[in-house]
Design brief:
The protein is α/β, with parallel strands linked by helices and about 280 residues long. About 40% of the residues lie in helices and about 15% in strands. An eight-stranded parallel barrel has the order 1-2-3-4-5-6-7-8, surrounded by six helices.
Length: about 280
């Protein structure tokens, strides 16, 4: 079928840029699709499929081989935030505030958040914490900085909470997590990431909090889902319980590299079609 100029114009229209306000309005409707991104080409690949791209402080573990996220600093987040914003055209880009960049005072949080947004072009920041961070979230939100909250299992606090184990697996653990999520939402967060909690608790938080709850290891009861992209693509040997691997990219990469190495060693690559010839040569 031929394409008319009118059809072409419609197809060529760019998708509308997602905003924190748009994401907030998705509560209880179509599930919100989120993934992490750290580099331009991956962001460009993810962009058309995702509502939100998170430049996570998980970059420290995924790209730099760190044991935790605690060694990541603001400059690193800005560098990767810029890269992701170059590749993302429609998804909302959110940047993690790294450990130590917002906990001291709400004024410290504002200075760092304002710098991260102004130097990258991202649309929001994410910070961890519940009731104790509500005043900081309110301070940022009232000054025009959209905030994505993060409660439940909080990677920046793993030392204080005894590791990465799931939270809320007994009912007596529920109330503090529920209160944390409510406090962050009431302070002005446009959405809240809920990590590593039992399914009944995730369902209750999603029902009782009036902003979108984005789950990671928190069941499909949430308003949306986020995963570390490299986890779901199978780039690492360790696979958390809550991750579904949609492909084994790590194995495919190893196979491709093995094929390349074999061809180099037997001089099959580069072949004639990969080789430049002299100008004017007959063949």
């Amino acid at each position: 079928m031929s394409t008319t100029p009118k059809d072409t114009a419609i197809d060529a229209r760019p998708k509308r840029q997602q905003t924190a306000k748009n994401i907030r309005a998705m509560k209880g409707s179509t599930p919100i699709v989120c993934l992490t991104a750290y580099i331009t080409p991956m962001a460009a690949r993810l962009d058309k499929h995702c509502d939100l791209l998170l430049v996570g402080d998980s970059v420290g573990m995924v790209l730099y081989g760190m044991d935790s996220t605690l060694g990541v600093d603001v400059d690193t987040m800005i560098r990767h935030g810029r890269a992701v914003c170059r590749g993302a055209k429609q998804a909302l880009v959110v940047i993690d505030m790294p450990f130590g960049s917002y906990e001291e005072t709400k004024e410290q949080a504002f200075r760092n958040a304002a710098r991260m947004l102004s130097e990258t072009g991202a649309g929001a920041v994410k910070l961890e914490g519940g009731i104790e961070m509500a005043e900081t979230v309110r301070f940022l939100a009232h000054r025009g900085i959209p905030v994505l909250g993060h409660v439940g299992l909080m990677p920046q606090s793993v030392h204080a909470h005894g590791g990465y184990g799931a939270r809320g697996r007994s009912v007596d653990e529920w109330q503090p997590i529920i209160e944390d999520a409510k406090a962050i939402a009431e302070a002005g967060a446009f959405a809240v990431v809920l990590e590593g909690v039992a399914e009944p608790l995730a369902r209750k938080v999603t029902e009782e909090v009036d902003v979108p709850i984005i789950g990671i290891g928190a069941s499909n009861a949430c308003d949306g889902q986020i995963l570390v992209t490299e986890d779901m693509l199978g780039l690492f040997a360790i696979n958390p319980k809550f991750v579904k691997r949609y492909m084994e990219l790590g194995a495919a990469i190893e196979e491709a590299i093995g094929a390349y190495a074999g061809e180099v060693r037997c001089r099959a690559f580069p072949a004639e079609e990969h080789t430049y010839k002299m100008r004017g040569a007959n063949s």
